[in-house]
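ok so I'm stuck.
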Amino acid sequence: MEDEFRLGEHVAKGLREEGLAADLASTRGRARELMIENPYDLVLLDLMLPDGDGLALLREWRREGHSTPVLALTARDLLADKIAGLDAGADDYLTKPFAFEELLARIRALLRRRVAEPMSTLGIADLALDRTARRVQRAGREIELTPKEFALLEHFLLHPGATLTRAEIAEHVWDERYEARSNVIDVMVARLRRKLEAGGAARLLYAVPGMGYVLRSRESAEPGAPGARDERGDRGDRNDDDELRE
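replied:
not stuck anymore, here's the structure
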């Protein structure tokens, strides 16, 4: 959340271009609403909001039991301000002006800490995703992904074998601007699937009719189990040239 709307829009746009879902709140009231509505992985908090003190809001969150990592992003650069922010519950502190590359690095570090057992590399079968270098390989073959495709694959790899509904995927990979009636998730999964299966590689992403998608290796898919068979007729397996329906 950011009190300078233009800067907030710039940061949110940059995060989305990196494949991260980002919601923007320019007031304390809106920030509280979003925290209630969404289980965020990370919060960027400005300590000077137009309708209240960001530091007080942070203390409230911590008293209420919210453990979401918070990166304080503010013009307050005195040592006493940094200490106050960290003592109030901030996990990191970055002063303005800042380089966007440094902000991204700090975000990646905080997100890694949030995982119970930090893993820089995720994988299944012969597929490997390097979260630090942001590289994906299949049997040693480099796979070029867009930031959104990378974020989508990362989310699947964090939940191998679990059926993820479109609503769950939208919540963690897209942002509040996602339109539920759009087929953007189905098209994105289809594109990701094509890249993963290039060169005749075995299928890893399966459609679960009426539910969503599951990432599993062929060896782990039992006959008759949901998602264990090719669902070429499912929404996500329409013509590869499907266009997004907004």
